[in-house]
Amino acid sequence: MTISESKLKGIIAFCFMLAIIPFIGLLSQYIVKDKIPAFANQGSHYETVEIVENKKSAGIYFVPQGTSVNQLLQSVGMKQKSKNDPEIKSGMKIEVHPAWVNKGIIIKEISNAEKISVGLALDINKASKEDLILIKGIGPATAQKIVELRKKVNGIKNIKQLMEIKGMKEKRIKQIEKYLYVKH
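Above: the chain sequence. Below: its structure as tokens.
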């Protein structure tokens, strides 16, 4: 079998391309730098805050402790400012609107469903039955029992009090306690 000169050139070109592709991939790692967006790191020393602009979520941010509302707004390129410039606390929702430039901003709290989705805990004494059902390991019946226990003892003082509920064992409490806290 003989190979024509044009087929031989094609095979050589194909082999050359196969040999050079890995080097192109390797070089592109150094040329194109992936950058983690500002305030995308999540951890124990970060506060979780949502910014809502024009009644639409502009994002959830994880900011270092000690960051003020105005510092965050300036960092994300917004002109609005808070008149009293409070320090950001986990679970804050900052509402801004372009028409409010001279009127300030509104600070609220993130909904419980959003808190759970970003890993924030709920105050067991304020969470509704529907909020409790969102937590993995708590179904409708258990959520109802938690609400009833809360009424009976005039507010839960410690997560371990959930062991008073029939069927609630220490293993199950360990599973759900990361989603709940007791405000002292």
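Residues 5-31 form the longest helix (27 residues).
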